[in-house]
Amino acid sequence: MTDPAAPRAYEVAARWVEERILAGELRVGDGLPAERELAAQLGVSRAAVREAVRSLQAQGVLRSSVGAGSAGGTKVSAMPSGALTRLLRIHVALANFPLTDVMEVRVALERLSARLAAERHGPQAARDLKDRLGEARDAASRGREAFNDADAAFHVAIAEAAGNRLAADTTIAIRESVRGPMLERFRGLDDEAFRGLTEDLNREHAQIVEAVVAGDPAGADALVEAHIRTAWVRLTGEDDAAATMEA
Amino acid sequence: MTDPAAPRAYEVAARWVEERILAGELRVGDGLPAERELAAQLGVSRAAVREAVRSLQAQGVLRSSVGAGSAGGTKVSAMPSGALTRLLRIHVALANFPLTDVMEVRVALERLSARLAAERHGPQAARDLKDRLGEARDAASRGREAFNDADAAFHVAIAEAAGNRLAADTTIAIRESVRGPMLERFRGLDDEAFRGLTEDLNREHAQIVEAVVAGDPAGADALVEAHIRTAWVRLTGEDDAAATMEA
Fold first, then answer.
1. Is residue A85 part of a domain?
2. Inter-chain contact B91–A108, Cβ cutoff 8 Å?
3. Chain A residues within an 8 Å CB radius of B165
4. Is residue B150 assigned to a domain?
5. Residue B35, domain CATH
6. Does A247 fall in a domain?
7. Interface test with B, best of A91, A112, A172 (most B CBs within 10 A)
8. Least CB-CB distance to A108: which of B63, B65, B112?
9. Are residues B154 and B123 in the same domain?
10. Which one of A47, B151, B203, B206 is separated from B5 by 20 to 30 angstroms, measured CA to CA?
């Protein structure tokens, strides 16, 4: 096996681009130097530069005009939110973080989203939240997967209403990353337990929306925290989650 | 310009790998099918598979045994924390999020880290925190860049002491992403203002360490929040940051 710490030629080129971006020298819309020039400057092959460009394209950092593959005509792109969400989900899936740890981060981010949503939501966001609320109610009778999707959509809608794109992106990524494990746990419940749980969750969702729409940040914050933590206890039987609740 | 929404052949292959990971069908250490097989199965060229593999390697999702470039011998890798941090930093740099938004997310994550650090830190973490504290004090006399680095290292040490890897990874990524803008603002201060600010920040750091080491989660949480928000007001002159403080 090769040493994973030793940078390959294409990594040298990729890092060069990343460093320029982090230093603020390359901004969205700026073009890269021509492939030949960049290769000469970095002392790597043109193939290595091409590979770096492809890899950064895949990550949403660069986009190419026609004639993809050449560095010339390649521009820095505003990495779409979806790219971050995708990578964070994969990271959470691979890193195999304890689910309790993921839940703690989720609580921190969703409390922020709920607070900001209560402070800043507009009329459209209020309508969206009520729509998602209704959808989660309807979905409960259509089974575990439908409810899980609708529940995720509800939490995403709160993050969207927060008007803080970074908070929304990270909240969405974390909620999406627990979609699989949550579904597994929903499936572990018998029909009666599942019905009881969805009724509780939907009632709590309604209370959260009420606090958000009423412009009550502290209330929305506390309700979201209690909602995520009690659902966690009911789904896992672990009451660890309550340990930091008073803080 | 090509349509950025239309997936290219290598994206088809990359998405296939990602979907298997998210579904839990590919786990860390699992090998990919041979390049030829995967290409045939997905109806793309072997070159496209190779490109997808390289791109996922660059993201830390895959690693190759000798003979890099072929899908056979390529294994799923535990995406290192550094990879997430790097991508999150680039995302924050490119997305050009309002700094107030970044600050809000930072407060949410660092409050969590401080709370968990107070609950869970071991003796080694307590020593590390005190070391970072001393280093930030020393660094203040060595100028803006040295202090900025030492300040970042202090906040990273709290995240590390939290014993929640996901919280630490995201906290670190956010703190790192504001390293440039923070430095710029430190540079905007005259020497006296800079000295006064570093004295305040170092005193606040010491209070935070005291609360963490004393095992006081609520105290550590509140001190970190006040610390980040008041520094923000002093560095930017914006008092928006205080708006959600009471929540």
1. yes
2. no
3. 95, 97, 101
4. yes
5. 1.10.10.10
6. no
7. A91
8. B112
9. yes
10. A47
Q: Do B58 and A59 touch (CB under 8 A)?
A: yes
A128/A213 Cα distance (integer angstroms): 11
Do residues B95 and B35 both lie within one domain? no
Q: How many angstroms separate the CA atoms of A204 and A234, rounded?
A: 14
The verdict on A89 touching B (C-beta cutoff 8 Å) is yes
Q: Is 70 exceeded by the pLDDT of residue B3?
A: no
Q: Domain ends where: A48, A76, A104?
A: A76
CA-nearest residue of chain B to A100?
B164
Q: Tell me how far apart the terminal alpha carbons of chain B are, to the nearest angstrom.
A: 47
Answer whether B222 touches A (CB < 8 Å). no
Whether A2 and B65 lie within 8 Å, measured CB to CB: yes
Tell me how many helices (H) and strands (E) chain A has. Answer: 11, 2
Q: Do B180 and A24 touch (CB under 8 A)?
A: yes
The pLDDT of residue A22: 80
Is the same domain home to A131 and A231? yes
- Type of residue numbered A89: R
Instruction: Report how far residue A121's alpha carbon sits from residue A164's, in angstroms, rounded to the nearest whole number.
Output: 11
Model pLDDT for residues A69-112, shown as the tens digit of each residue: 445 589 998 877 777 777 777 887 787 788 888 899 999 999 99
**For the segment A22-52, what is each residue's pLDDT rounded down to a tens digit?**
877 888 899 999 999 999 999 999 999 988 8
Over residues B68-75, the mean pLDDT reads 64
A2 in a structural domain: no
Q: Which of A222-226, B51-55, B197-201 has the lowest mean pLDDT?
A: B51-55
Domain count within chain A: 2
Of B21, B87, B244, the CB nearest to A93: B21
A141-179 pLDDT tens trace: 999 999 998 998 999 899 889 988 888 888 888 887 787
Q: Residue B75 in 3-state DSSP?
A: strand
Give the CATH number, domain containing residue A201. 1.20.120.530
- Among A63, A95, A119, the residue with its CB nearest the CB of B79 is A95
Residue A56's pLDDT band (boundaries 50, 70, 90)? Answer: confident
What is the pLDDT confidence band of residue B68, given thresholds at 50, 70 and 90? very low
Alpha carbon of B49 to those of A2, A38, B168: distances in Å? 20, 25, 34
Using the Cβ of A84 and the Cβ atoms of chain B, whether some distance falls under 8 Å is answered with yes
What range defines the domain where residue A230 resides? 81-242
SS3 breakdown of chain A: % helix, strand, coil, rounded to 5? 70, 5, 25
DSSP annotation of B8: P
